[in-house]
Specification:
The protein is mainly α and 185 residues long. The chain has 7 helices and no strands. It is globular.
């Protein structure tokens, strides 16, 4: 029965966490801490930290961790399946509809209209991350709080990616290594 409850709880999270992993965190907390009492508040904080720092989508990482905490490996599989099922169904349906009607002028017009909005969202996320890294805050930009190392790394990474055409993975690894070494010094 616990596996079904895990599946159902994370199915709801997967279905209603529109906006990505960070939007799912309050829903996950509500299900795991407040409604089901599977985790304590401290355990949830650990879950959130682990889900954010491990590779992959935050909601899926959180589902796997919560399911493992509650019911071991079968619980992790059940919670993860519940979390990904809504996305799987929705994307499959949209893919089918797109391949069937991709030539319709209305659909092409809608997609062309969405492109600038998507580009703006990606740019806004990038600017917020840059401000957070360089100034320590995306909302209160103050010159006395500038991390010059992070600013230099951002500029160097930009040049390495755009001008030298370096691999993004190599660029991230080198920036991480430089930050780590600077922190140790």
């Amino acid at each position: 029965m616990i596996y079904l409850r895990l599946f159902w709880s994370f199915l709801q999270i997967g279905l209603f966490s529109i906006g990505g992993g960070y939007a799912a965190i309050p829903l996950i907390r509500a299900q795991t801490v407040d409604l089901q009492h599977w985790l304590t508040a401290d355990q949830f904080m650990n879950l959130a930290a682990i889900a954010e720092m491990t590779p992959g989508p935050i909601a899926i990482n959180a589902a796997t961790f919560a399911g493992m905490q509650v019911a071991g490996l079968p619980g992790a599989l059940s919670a993860t399946a519940g979390c990904i099922l809504p996305s799987l169904v929705i994307v499959s349906l949209l893919s089918y509809l797109y391949t069937r009607w991709r030539e319709l002028p209305v659909l092409q017009g809608a997609l062309k209209t969405l492109r600038p909005a998507v580009a703006a969202l990606i740019l806004a996320a990038g600017v917020n991350m840059l401000l957070q890294a360089v100034f320590g805050s995306a909302s209160a930009v103050q010159m006395d709080s500038v991390s010059w190392l992070q600013a230099a790394l951002a500029a160097a990474a930009f040049l390495a990616l755009r001008k030298a055409r370096w691999s993004p993975i190599l660029t991230m690894a080198l920036c991480g290594a430089v930050s780590l070494l600077a922190g140790l010094i």
